[in-house]
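Checklist before submission:
- one chain only
- standard amino acids only
- sequence pasted in full

Submission:
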Amino acid sequence: MRRLLLVLCLVAALASSARLAWQWRHMPHLGIFHDDAIYLVSAHALATGQGYRIESLPGSPWQTKYPILLPLYLSLAWRIEPGFPRVLPWVMLLCWMTLPAFVLAAEGFFSQVGFGPEERILLCFLLAFNPILVYLSLAAMSEVMGCFFFAICLLHLERSMDRPREGRAAILAGLFAGLSILARTALLPVLASAPLCYLLHRRRRQAWLFLVASLPFAAGWQLWTATHKAAASDLETLFYTDYLRFYLFNLGRTSFPQLVYDNLGALLKSFGEMMVFQQAKGFVPVLAALVAAIIGMAGWVRLFRQGRLRQYALFAILFSAQHLVYNFPPTARFLLPLVPGLLAGFWTEFRHILTLVARHRRHPSVAERAVAYALFAVLFLFGLFSLWRAAYGVSRWVPDNLEVQRDLLVGRLPALHWVSANSKPDDVVLSTFESLSYLYTGRRGLGFFLPTSLFYPPDKKAIESHFRGVPRFVYDRDIAYVILSAGDYAVSEPQFSFPAWQQALNDQPVFQRVFENHVAHVYRVLRR
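Returned file contents:
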């Protein structure tokens, strides 16, 4: 009966995300991450035989920033329904399907770690009911797909550690490590952590088999990027086409100690948010998330001492270090590959604490029994609070965020329709949602990006100075129209960026406003 109840809870968790996927199947929130619209545009290029390109940009350069696996997967939607926006329900279906696939792969991983059937169902429920995961499964983003392949890789890594003489598990781990990298390049540290762990355990054969199976995927992608990368080295080209050169471009202008310090704070916050959903001000959610993260890490250490999750632990260290020095704050979505390990650790330590509590409940001392019952009550309340936060995230926070984006689209569509009706097919449009604009108008476009160095720490004067370069930018790139919209630069210090963006367009005589509503303005660029 208890197992049946847990299965029903897991089904209900997946059903809640499936309901959201159906409700939002027309994806009015497309472009919410910016990257999602680029993925869809690149998928369209693959489906129509243009090759792996960013067809929304002038000149349709080769796509050398995002690996091909997700766009290749999404190209199936374009092959089923070539028209936009009719294709979006198919895109939503493909995106959501990665969530149950990840949960199923994680179940195999939890089984290999040694959890019983009921424990595995409980852990899968917590995974399927994670608001961050649910949110990402409703967008054309690579995080959940990358986690799916990585979970299968972890399963086979654990299996290979249990079977030192067997090479098949190491080969399969390498294959799925390669696939996970073709979904998300952020998972590259597994190419170092897995072989290193094999070598530390004196298993050279397994290390070589893993590398032989995984390196062709990584090497093939690196060869593609090396032979197809754009020659230009301006900020915009680097942003669209090259992770490494964009990072190096900004690194030389960034205070490195400040970057590490800020990212460390974001990293610690995100560890907690992966366990207990926050997205709210207040001491209690933050404290609960911190406690959950500490319990998860303590349990991971316990499993490590038992000979489990050793490769995963080494990966977690390298993966976290990578995000510590990256020029973007490591929010919870970036750290999702660590969730199965933290959940496994959390339940291991939670179970250990419950065992100690149960032992002391039978102690002859009244004081010890009272402490045990009090601790049990605290643990019970903690569990209820965590479930309540997850339920709030899935039922309120996710729909609220999607509704905000839908309202933005409703306001932007008249502006996009105006551009489509009044511009020439070869006109270039500047906006912060250029790929989404291309999908609705057919007009290629660019974004005006800020160097991430301006945010470590936030520099208001430097941001305002950067936006004063907009007129030169539009003339140098022969841009015909500019769209200003509510929601622009929402993740780029908007308290500084958006006013500077408005001022750059409203105070310059080179921009003539030709359309406006309560959400968006369209400006024609006057020729010199």
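Reviewer check: The longest strand covers residues 511-516.
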